[in-house]
Write a structure and sequence with these properties.
The complex is a heterodimer of chains A (about 180) and B (about 100). Chain A has about 180 residues and is mainly alpha-helical. Chain A has a single domain (about 1-90, about 130-180), classed as Four Helix Bundle (Hemerythrin (Met), subunit A) (Up-down Bundle). Chain A is about 75% helix and about 0% strand. The N and C termini of chain A lie far apart (about 75 Å). Chain B has one domain: Helix Hairpins (Orthogonal Bundle). Chain B has helices spanning about 10-30, 30-55, 60-90. Classes of the chains: A mainly alpha (about 180), B mainly alpha (about 100). Chains A and B meet through helix 1, helix 2, helix 3, helix 4 and helix 6 of A and helix 1, helix 2 and helix 3 of B.
Chain lengths: ~180, ~100
């Protein structure tokens, strides 16, 4: 009993810590003026989200989160920020206009609506994959098996989408000969 | 007496707060890269909700949805950042208020 209490208390502690750090870092991400600072705070938010995924017992998604989001995508964003010269951007003060105030108000209303919607927690019929069964089979093995059976068509479509994105990025970033125009 | 385990609502509320912060970032910031990062934050908060539902309803479909969302986010990042670089080359700015080429 006591050991169980200790483990649940530790879980609560980790959850509350990561949740507050994630929210605080994302608020800083939105309010910092320097894009590099925003990007670094966003990386902190993504790492906290990865810890939340571990708490939700999906280590595969947590690792993919660190590799793809915190690693690949944020590296790309920081690379582009450093590629562009945004010095004069820092001198412009943040303007507070009427439309922005209205937008923030509507978003806060939407947040209240979301709170109301999720108040009772997750409800619905339970599927067969209990945590014990998944951990017994191995999380990655279960995901891989479903990916190549039930979700085969979306998987193939995603591969086509990624190839299209690579080709599109190369075509966009290619230096155009402007003299020809 | 035993402590209660973390309820699913707690995770969903964290996801909702992060989504709202991302939406505020999209609406108030005018630097295209920061707007893009806010969109990534919104995608990420939706991932938290999907994983929560998948965990508490004993289903594995949410994990696969998150997998696909991450693949789409990676594709979006590649194309979006290429567009920003091209935009900066031609317009010398990535301030979204000053780019109105496709506005009629």
């Amino acid at each position: 009993m006591f050991a169980q209490n200790i483990s649940i208390a530790f879980e609560w502690l980790v959850f509350l810590g990561t949740a507050f750090v994630a929210i605080f870092a994302s608020i800083l991400m939105v309010t910092r003026k320097n894009p590099i600072h925003s990007a670094l705070f966003l990386i902190l938010t993504f790492l906290c989200t990865a810890v939340l995924f571990f708490l939700l017992q999906s280590p595969f998604i947590a690792i993919v989160q660190v590799l793809v989001y915190a690693g690949a995508i944020m590296m790309l964003i920081i690379f582009v920020i450093m590629l562009l010269d945004l010095e004069e951007e820092l001198l412009i003060p943040l303007k507070i206009s009427f439309s922005k105030t209205v937008g923030v108000f509507i978003v806060l209303l939407m947040m209240l609506g979301l709170f109301f919607a999720v108040w009772g927690g997750a409800r619905g019929p339970s599927a067969g994959y209990t945590p014990e069964k998944v951990s017994h089979l191995g999380s990655v093995r279960v995901v891989g098996k479903l990916l190549f059976t039930d979700y085969l068509l979306p998987f193939e479509i995603i591969s086509v989408l990624l190839i299209a994105a690579i080709v599109g990025a190369i075509v966009l970033a290619k230096q155009r000969p402007f003299e020809k125009e | 007496m035993t402590l209660p385990a973390i309820p699913s609502g707690a995770y969903l509320i964290v996801g909702a707060i992060l989504f709202a912060i991302g939406a505020i970032g999209v609406l108030t910031r005018r630097n295209a890269i920061v707007v893009f990062m806010s969109v990534e934050l919104m995608l990420n908060s939706v991932n938290i909700s999907l994983i929560t539902f998948s965990r508490f309803l004993n289903s594995i479909d949410g994990v696969l949805f998150v997998f696909f969302v991450m693949a789409v986010a990676a594709a979006e990042a590649a194309v979006g950042l290429a567009i920003f670089v091209q935009l900066y080359r031609t317009q010398k700015t990535i301030h979204v208020d000053e780019v109105r080429l496709m506005k009629w």
